[in-house]
Each structure stands twice: as structure tokens, then as C-alpha cells.
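Quick log. Single chain, no ligands specified.
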Amino acid sequence: MLKIWLVAEQQFRKDVFKRSFLLAILALPLFLGFMIAMGWLSETMQQQSTALGYVDPGHALTQPPANADGKITLLPFASATQARAALDEGQIDAYYLLPVDYPHTRQTELVYSSQLDSAAVRAFNELVRRNLLAGQEAQVADRALAGPEIIIRATDRGRETPLSAPGLGTFLPLMLALLFAFLVMTVAATLMETMAAEKQNRTIEIVVSSISPSQMMAGKIIGVVGMALLLAASWVALMLGFAWFGATVMGWDWLRGIAIPWRDLALVILVAVPSFLCIAAAMVALGATIVDTQEAQQIGGVGFLIIFMPIYLFFAFGNSPNGPLAIAFSLFPPTAVTTLAVRSIFMQVPALQFLAAALVALVCGMLLIWLAGKLFRANMLRYGQGLRLWRRRG
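-> predicted structure:
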């Protein structure tokens, strides 16, 4: 057992104390930050400064506009002639002309020189609605302006979703699953390529002279799992720091109101750890049979397609989240984490299914560790040749 931990410690140090590990820590946060920054920049560039006028001959709009948004300005005019002159001179982009007996007659005219921004239309509509609710109490007016809030409750699935759009918290288990997939892409394929490289330079055979192949494989896998846990913890810490900065310093309301599904997140993590162990063991077993690093990259690409397969079946799982196909994918270790995360969006997956998936992944991981040692022993003397599962008959 001591030899296994020595190999695990050496593998952990070898992977962590490298410049590429620091780059791997920063890769995902920098990528997410870049995507968020590009989205914010695109939205900012699409928002145009709009000056919108309105003519209210019947004095129905007694309350002045709030003009809370600096990009939208609402300007009252005494007559249509003045508003038209301001439009021709470019002082405003459009103006509304209300009838004299508004709101009894609601046929309102909109005059514009170019297509009006939808945000400006919403600002004017809110102005009109606030004036129509001027005689009501502040709480009643605010509730009426907020509009209806319709929630769909699926009693048989234990889920409720707003009709407008689900909150960001609903997708947190799926985001965690994508983080797991990114972790596998970063670590597991590298492990398989390292095994192939060590076989090519034959240094691994020197180590086997003092330790059994099974012990060496188990130590390498434990070391890689430890490195992966450290990498994942670093990513989570950086993203939590980003969330705190956005909610506290930047004042982003969409970060403050996230309802975190702690149950689903904890259960996904419970499945993710043994699933990663299983996938890492599979990569080591494959690395023990292949000849060069190019072949390792080709096999790794196929493995990534398998991990992302539940994303392609997103709507199929949404239509039947507790069907036989969804349960089968939940118990298959390479797809278990992503499938359970997708199903968690549409239903409250029973905890027993998470526990079953974790147990299956753990058992498969142990078997693959044992198999990796056997495959390496069988292929150790076949220098420069791949391992064949059957013999050719002459």
C-alpha cells in the first residue's frame, strides 16, 4: 500500500508543479470571463441612446417621466407641431401622439424617422401605465406594473418553473456537469498520452522492476484524481470569487437572486468523483495498450463525444426524464454526471438513483484499475506493438 501512495505522490507532484497546471487553472475562468465580457460588450453596443417625445393634449400623463435609464430620454411636447419640428431637426428619434380624450380613446399615433428601439417603447409604456395607476396605493401600483407571475408545477416530477423563463439556479447542476466534462478533457486525455509516452521511452518498465503493474496503475490513477480535485477546487473558488465580485461590487442583481439547488449539486458531486475515477482508470487502461501519443489523442476524441452525448439528447430526456433511456445513461459512468444534471432540470431525480450511479462508477473504476494492471503486464514485452485481443490464424 505504501508503494501505491509513493507512486500517487510522485504523479501528483509531477502534474501539479508544472507551468501547464497553472495555465489549466486559469484556462476555464479566463474563457468564461471572455465569453461574459463579449456578451456584455455586444449587448452594450446594441443599446442605443434614444430620445422619445410624446404629445398629450388631454393631459392624461400628469406624472413626469422618471428617465431612470440614461440611454432613454422621454420628452413632453405641447403640440404635434413642436414634436414634428424636433424630429426633423434630429433632437428626438420619434414621438407619440395621444388623442385628446385618452384613455377613453386609445388610438395612439407613433411618428418616427427610423425603427424605434424596443427598450424605448417599453419605457413609454411604463410611463403610461404609471399614470393610469396614479390613484392607487404604491404597493398596488408596483404589483400591477410587475405583471403576472405564472409558475408551472409538475407535481409528478417535483419541479416548478416560471412560465417566462427558468432561473439560472435551475441550470447550476448542468453547469457543474459541463465543468466535470471540461475537467475530463483537461486531465484524463493527458494521462493517457503520458502513459503512451512513458511506454515509448521505456522508463515505466524500470519502475515495474520494483513494483507490480497493478500497484503502479493504482498509484498513477490516485495521483491524477488528487490533481483533478485540486484543479476543480481552484476553478470553483475562482468562480465563487467572480460571483461575489459581480454581486457585491458590480451590483449585478441576476447574481444576487440565484436560488441554489444544494441537494442536486451535492448529489451530482457525489456521482462525479467516482465517475472521474472510472474514466481515469479507463484512460490508463487504454494507455497501457496503445503504441504512441497520436493514437491516444484519437481515442480521447471518441471518449469526449460519449461524455457529451446526453447534451445531444437534451430534449429526449426532457420529454421523458424518468424513462428507460434516461435511467440507462444515468447508470453508465461516462455519461452519468451529465445525464443526471440534465434530468435535474426537468424533475427531482430520486437520491437512490444518484447513489446507484455512484456505486456503479466506483465498482467499474476498481475493476478498470485491476484491468489496467493486467493489460500493462500483457503488453509490457510487446515493444512498439499494440495489444491484440485475438490471434491471427496462419
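The radius of gyration is 30 Å.
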